[in-house]
Every structure is written in structure tokens, then in C-alpha cells.
Amino acid sequence: MRKLLAAALCLAATVTATGCGANVESSADPKTPAVTLTNCGKKVTYDKVPKRVVTNDVGITELMFALGLENRMAGFAMPDDKGDLTDVPWKDGYDKVKWLSKDQLTKENVLDARADLVFAGWNYGFRDDSGFTPEALKKLGIPTYILTESCRNGRTKTSRGIMPPLDALYADLTNLGKLFGVEKRAAALIADFKKQVAATAAQAPAHRPKVFLYDSGQDQPFTSGRYAAPDEIITKAGGHNVMHDVDDSWTTVGWESVVERNPDVIVICDYGDVSAEQKRKFLLSYAPLRDVSAVKHKRIFVLDYVDLVESPRNPSAIARLGTYLRTVDRHR
């Protein structure tokens, strides 16, 4: 699937990647005047085009790669448990850009990289407990850009998400295109993604299966509310996220709410020390779930972590989940 996706992206939009041998527009010259963007609902002005960007996590890093901005990067931080990177469409980016840390960004590795922009998100690098925040980096003279999926929304101190997840993806691509002077490349990528998503959504079954996203956790499950990428991945694929009414992005819920909503399908987010197969075995053996439709009928589907966070892989994830949900609908 990843090889096919890589080929399709190369053929469909020559402006979307540098690794396909395509001719692409040059990113903006460093002397370009200041650029003002709206990020997390606030106007932010960047005095110059960044030349040494550092990113945190796989989805954020691949947003840069998908726009062909490897030459504007000084490095990235990412655990090595986020999936096989061998056949990703942006393999050239991983080959060219330095892997700064297999944990998270810190002030130290950002300073060591001589970064002139940190692109991260709340719970995707930025975190209050360690003091690695946009405010702290500003004091060091380092500008930041916050992943829109992770924007805090003010409902609680930790609640995240201010717009539908795909809108967040398109907003970030548009902003990055403007900041780096690659608007045409960003627009072409967005148009291609919208076309892919629409093609899958058009095939949605009349009776949409109810879907629960399982990330992790045994005492309480960690899942997706309406503002994390899985919500629209599930919706556009032809399902209904049973936690759509939760006004947050990634968050913890109770098992009783899962049982009450009785999903037809469970989607596992595959990453970390606990394998997808271990998660599957837990779900199928966890007594409180025994009467849940997805468990009774063993309707469990696996997607990679990077498919399920805001990233340029979201449209492909929608297509693959859509195929599975149509199969489920036909056999109910």
C-alpha cells in the first residue's frame, strides 16, 4: 500500500514532492518580507523565512517533507516506534534530514541544531511539565509554529482542537506554503488530498458502522474525540466515531461509555511497546467488552500511528479504512 501511495503521489502531483524527480517551485528567498499567519487563532508574524526548522514527531515532520522543504530543515525528533519508514513516499526526506532525537525535542537539542523555527504541537513536543513551550522558546529568540490539530481550545487546561481535523491539516499546509513561498505546491497537495477523500466518501455505506478508535490503556482507553484526525478519518471512510461528541482531540474516556455506544468496529492505533496484536488480544479478552458488537464479531482494523495523527498520510488511511467498512457493511 505504501509503495502504491508513493507512486500515485509522484504521478498525480509533480509539485508535491522532491523525491519523485519532479520539477518543483523553489521555496522563498530568505530576504522575503515578513509573513503573518493565523496559528491557533492568533496572528503570528515571522520576520524571515526559516532556514533551520526542527520538527517533533512523524506527522509534523512529514508535512514538511510532503511540501518538499527538506532543505529548510535542521533536524527532527521522533521515537523509532512509529512504524517502518522504508517505503514511505517521503523516504528521501528521512535520508537527508538529521534525526536529532529518538525521544522529544528539548531546548538543548534545538539550540544545538541552531534552529530558527520549532514546528511542534501540544503533546507533540510542546509540554508544560518540562518547560518546553512556545513562550520559553520565544525567550530564547526562537519562533514557533503550533500544529493546528493540537491547538488548545480553552474548555479545560488541556483540551485541544479548534476545527475539524482535515481542516486543520489543510490550514497547516496552507500556512506552511505561505511561510516558505511554496503556495502552489501546498495548493496542489491539498487539492489532491481532497480528491482522494471525496472519492472514498462518495462510496460510504448507507448504514454507517459505529467505530471506536483504540489508542492504548487498559484501566481507561485513550481515544479520539471530534478534533483529532481519527474523527474525520472514520467519518470520511464511511463510519461514525462513537466519541464524536467529545469536545477534545486525543483524550481518555471510560470503558462504560464504549460498552454503552456498542461500536461495530474497533480501529487500533499501532505504535509503541505494545504491539497491535497485543492490543487486539486484550480487547478480545477484556470481559467488560464481551457483548460489544466489534468484539463479538472480531471486527478489528489496524492503522499506523502516523495514519491517525495529523499528517499527509490521512487520505490514504481514509481510503484503506473505507474499503474495510464497506466490507463490514456488506456482511452485517
Low-confidence segments: 1-24
Distance between the termini: 26 Å
Helix segment tally: 13
Q: Estimate the mean pLDDT confidence.
A: 91
Q: Please report which band the strand proportion falls in: under 5%, 5-15%, 15-25%, 25-35%, 35-45% or over 45%.
A: 15-25%
Gyration radius, in Å: 20 Å
What does this entry look like structurally?
37% of the residues lie in helices and 17% in strands. The chain is built from 13 helices and 14 strands. The strands form four sheets. Strands 3, 4, 5, 6, 7 and 8 form a six-stranded parallel β-sheet that branches. A four-stranded parallel β-sheet has the order 11-9-13-14, sandwiched between helices. A two-stranded antiparallel ribbon has the order 1-2. Strand 3, helix 2 and strand 4 form a beta-alpha-beta unit. Helix 6 runs antiparallel to helix 7 and helix 8 (229-237) crosses helix 13. It starts with a helix and ends with a helix.
Helices and strands, with pairings:
Elements (H helix, E strand, L loop, with lengths): L1 H11 L22 E5 L2 E5 L6 E4 L1 H9 L6 E5 L13 H6 L2 E3 L5 H6 L4 E6 L2 E2 L7 H6 L4 E3 L18 H16 L2 H19 L8 E5 L7 E3 L4 H9 L2 E2 L8 E3 L2 H7 L3 E6 L5 H10 L7 H4 L3 E5 H4 L5 H17 L2
Helix pairs in contact: 6-7, 7-13, 8-13
